[in-house]
């Protein structure tokens, strides 16, 4: 764990969360204490990665969309959080290699299967990347539902102390596949991941997976 990563959580993120919000973590006992793990969560704001790192007592390596890394403000931040880039909408072999490396080292890999922040706060349709990595590697998936983080988009949240809940579900696994994975295999696996996340969110935030 880099100094920037550790210091950011301990001295900045965690105190601000308790000071400015009514912050709660549910299901902490569901987190495996060691071993490779994929953490799959919904994505609403730029605060989500540090929020997950604060709530889950594991070293998390995040996968983030590539344009963040060239941004003059966000670039240094995501690099400091030990994230690595992925090209959205295509097979990114370098991102797969980095994912496999993190999991082989027994780390937790943080993925937002929606691949982009939700502008409405509701869960969007998931991309297949998380299912692809999970079925290639065979490690457990930890679903997480983040509720209330959309209120960070309005600056008046500092006066309202919104309720922010990180709801951690039970880990589960997908069938392992040693061969080439098809869209027909990845689509239902992705729906399974997203349904687990949806079940951890309030009903009015489940969006595409409301049923």
In short:
This protein has helices at residues 3-20, 48-55, 74-80, 93-104, 129-137, 157-160, 183-198, and strands at 22-26, 37-41, 60-65, 84-86, 108-111, 141-147, 163-168.
Q: What features would you describe in this structure?
A:
With 211 residues, the chain is an alpha/beta fold. Helix 5 (129-137) packs across helix 7 (183-198). The chain is 35% helix and 17% strand. The protein has seven helices and seven strands, in the order αββαβαβαβαβαβα. Helix 3 links the parallel strand 3 and strand 4. A seven-stranded mixed beta sheet has the order 1-7-6-2-5-3-4, sandwiched between helices.
How would you describe this structure in keywords?
211 residues, alpha/beta, 17% strand, globular
Write the topology of this structure.
Elements: H1 3-20, E1 22-26, E2 37-41, H2 48-55, E3 60-65, H3 74-80, E4 84-86, H4 93-104, E5 108-111, H5 129-137, E6 141-147, H6 157-160, E7 163-168, H7 183-198
Parallel strand pairs: 1-7, 2-5, 2-6, 3-4, 3-5
Antiparallel strand pairs: 6-7
Helix pairs in contact: 1-2, 5-7
């Amino acid at each position: 764990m880099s100094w920037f990563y550790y210091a950011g959580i301990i001295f900045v993120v965690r105190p601000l969360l308790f000071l400015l919000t009514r912050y709660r973590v549910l299901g902490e006992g569901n987190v495996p204490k060691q071993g490779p793990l994929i953490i799959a969560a919904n994505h609403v704001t730029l605060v989500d990665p540090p929020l997950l790192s604060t709530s889950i007592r594991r070293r998390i390596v995040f996968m983030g969309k590539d344009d963040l890394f060239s941004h003059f403000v966000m670039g240094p931040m995501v690099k400091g959080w030990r994230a690595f880039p992925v090209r959205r909408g295509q097979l990114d072999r370098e991102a797969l290699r980095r994912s496999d490396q993190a999991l082989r080292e027994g780390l937790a890999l943080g993925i937002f299967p929606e691949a982009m922040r939700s502008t409405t706060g509701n869960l969007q349709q998931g991309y297949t990347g998380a299912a692809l990595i999970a079925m290639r590697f065979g490690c457990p998936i930890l679903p997480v539902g983040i509720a209330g983080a959309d209120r960070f988009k309005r600056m008046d949240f500092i006066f309202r102390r919104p309720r922010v809940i990180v709801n951690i579900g039970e880990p589960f696994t997908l069938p392992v596949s040693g061969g080439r994975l098809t869209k027909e295999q990845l689509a239902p696996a992705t729906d399974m991941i997203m349904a687990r996340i949806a079940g951890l969110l309030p009903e009015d935030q489940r969006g595409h997976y409301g049923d």
